[in-house]
Every structure is written in C-alpha cells, then in structure tokens.
Amino acid sequence: MAEVTVREVNGLRFEERDLRGKVPVLSDGGAFGEIPLVRRVDPIFGTGVRFVSGAKIQPETRADVAELTSPGGFCPFCPGFHEKYTFPFPSEMVPEGKIRRNLALVVPNIVAYSTYSSVGVYDSTRHFVPMEEFEASLLHDAFAAMLQYVRDIRAYDAQAAYSSINANYLPPSGSSLIHPHLQSSNDYVPLAMQSALIERARRHRKEGRERLLMDYVEAEREGPRYIGRLGNAHFLTPFAPSGFREVWAVLEGGADLTDLGDDDVTAFADGLAKVIAAYVEWNLGSFNFALTGGGPDAAALGLNPLFRIVARSNPDPYYRSDVTYFERLYGELMVDITPEETAAGLRESF
Ligand SMILES: [Zn+2]
After folding, report:
1. Of 117, 122, 140, 310, which is the most buried if we count CB atoms within 10 A?
2. Would you say 288 and 243 are in contact if contact means Cβ atoms under 8 Å apart?
3. Non-local CB neighbours of 150 within 8 Å, separated by 6+ positions
4. Other CB atoms closer than 10 Å to residue 183's CB: what's the count?
C-alpha cells in the first residue's frame, strides 16, 4: 500500500501519496516494474491530481492561429459593429450605460448565464489580441471596467452578492467568439466551486482560524510553489492543480471583489501579464480564468478574492482536449508537469 505524506499547516491538510504505477518496462523486455505516480488532494477544494511520468501532454510547438483569428465578417465587438449591436445598461443599473476604460468596453451579455451578466472586451479597436500582446495596462483596464460593473450591480441590487469575473480565450477553452473577451457573473446563489470555497472558509472559521486564503499563502510562502508578491497580490501555484499550468493569485487588498482598489488591480494585472507571457513561452495558446468573490459574508469569513488561471489545449485543427474522463467526470486532473516546475519557471519574472 502506498505511503501517505501529510503536511498539516494552519489547519490546512497537504496530502500526497505515491501510488507506484505497475507497468511493463520496455528497456527490460516488458518485465513488470514500478514508476512514480504521485496523487495529491487540494487543501481548499478537495479535488485530486495525478502526476504521471513518461507522458508528453504539453505542446512542443505553438499553434498557428492566423486563419482562425483573422478579422472579417460580423463580430459584435469590433469597431463599426459594437456601436450598433451592443446595448447600454439601463442608467439606474449602470450609470455609464456602457463602461469604457481606455480600449476596454463592458456591455450587457445577450446570453444570460446569471441574474446579472456582462461581457467585456480588452480592446474594442481590434478583433484579435494575441497572447503575446496582453500587456498589463490592457488587463488593468479590462478588470477595472468589470469591477466597476460589479460595484454598480451591488449598488443596484445588493442581493446579487455572489460575483465573479471570468474568461475563456479561443475555442478550446469554450469560447464561442474569437474577439478576446471576459465575463462577469453576479447572482443570488454561488457557483458550485464558489460555494465550495465559501463553505471551506466557514469550516476554517469554526476551527478557530482567521483567514483561509491568507493562511494558505502563509503555509506556502517559503515553499517551492510560491512565485512572488506584487503589491497586495500573492502569486503561487496550487499544491493540487485542477488544470494545466495553473496559477493562483490571492488578493489581500479586500474581502470581496467590490473592495479592490485601483492599486490592487494594477498589481494584479502586472502579475497576470507575466503569467500570460510565460504561457506564450511554453507554447500555450488558450486559457480559462476565474476571479472569484466570496459572497455576502466574505468579510465575516475572512475571505479574499481568489484568482485562478489554467492553460487549455492549443487551438490546432485536430487538437486533443486536455479534459478527459478524469477531469470531466471525476474532478481529478491528470498532468505531466508539477506546480513546482510551473512556479520555478515563473519566479524569475516576478
Ligand atoms: Zn471582433
């Protein structure tokens, strides 16, 4: 039976075991041997991850997205179209109608996925922003516009207190539109993982601890997964990731999204630009991210906004999805790169 290693810090359980995979060894004529197969459980979300050895899951070359991303045809977010095909919010809901911050633009989403949903583009002057051009200022403006939307909604309907700002980038991540965009969800009920985070914080509090995510940062601060701090934003890789090249940021500057000030957004955007630049270096061409707020009790529960970003399969014509039955049906990631490797690669640029 595999040996379990458990590290308990600040009420958080970092559990790891080597399952020792039994396989025929090619160099030994197919005689059976053992190879490392490490499994971890996430201290916050309880999800599992398996680090496989000998697999090559990560891309070795960059995807050619020239044809996929070339402008032409109807796009509701492009110049000449967004003026006509997007609508302002009612002024009592969002005083600005459409929210603009330099090139960023936030408008109502036509498709409702939550009680109050908006869609925003980083750049309303061009159809496509390649990942290598995601500069900190572009990210800052898009998040600043989205956070304004969240604050406006709270002022309009305080009950819609479960907020998040999220994104898909290119089709492998689930995005139906090529023009890079992000979305905000504001609802009376939490999303499932948002609920898991809030309930975990509640349990942490019952156990006499103060701040779940800052206790997590504290537990990891001196270790191989901590990347660096920019202002009030702590960047680190999760002990047990749920996606490829996953990176987290814990935003110490507030309890909920509505507490974040411009300094917080600037520091966070600086870090996110560094993460996306590293994704480019690693030949990754698609991602999802989620900036999750802790709901109406965020302050009482000692929560902080949690940002998570994961790389997705590259937009190649016959791409292999990074989501197998492991991830889709068991909530368990199978991956060939450890969070320690990802953190090491990022630390140099922080
Ligand atoms: Zn467009």
Report:
1. 122
2. yes
3. 163, 165, 184, 186, 257, 258, 293
4. 20
* Average pLDDT over every residue of 269-278: 98
**Distance from C-alpha of 273 to C-alpha of 30, rounded to nearest angstrom:** 47
What CA–CA distance (Å, rounded) separates 239 from 217? 11
How many angstroms separate the alpha carbon of residue 129 from the centre of ligand 1? 10
* 78 CA to centre of ligand 1 in angstroms: 4
Distance CA 231, CA 135 (A): 18
Distance 90 CA to ligand 1 centre (A): 24
At position 346, the amino acid (one-letter code) is L
Other Cβ atoms within 10 Å of 118 Cβ, number: 25
Tokens read off for 38: 């490490």
Tokens of 259: 């507490």
Element (H, E) at 332: strand 332-335
**Nearest-angstrom CA–CA distance, 145 and 218:** 31
Q: How far is the CA of 121 from the centre of ligand 1 (A)?
A: 9
Lowest model confidence (mean pLDDT) among 59-63, 132-136, 344-348: 59-63
CA 179 / ligand 1 centre spacing (Å): 5
Structural domains in the chain, CATH included, are: 66-320+338-347 (3.30.428.10)
Q: Where are the beta strands (DSSP E) in 10-92?
A: 12-18, 21-25, 31-35, 38-41, 48-51
CA of 123 to the centre of ligand 1 (A): 9
For residue range 22-79, list pLDDT tens digits in order: 999 888 999 999 999 999 999 999 999 999 987 777 788 899 998 899 988 899 999 9
Question: In angstroms, what is the span from residue 178 Cα to ligand 1's centroid?
Answer: 7
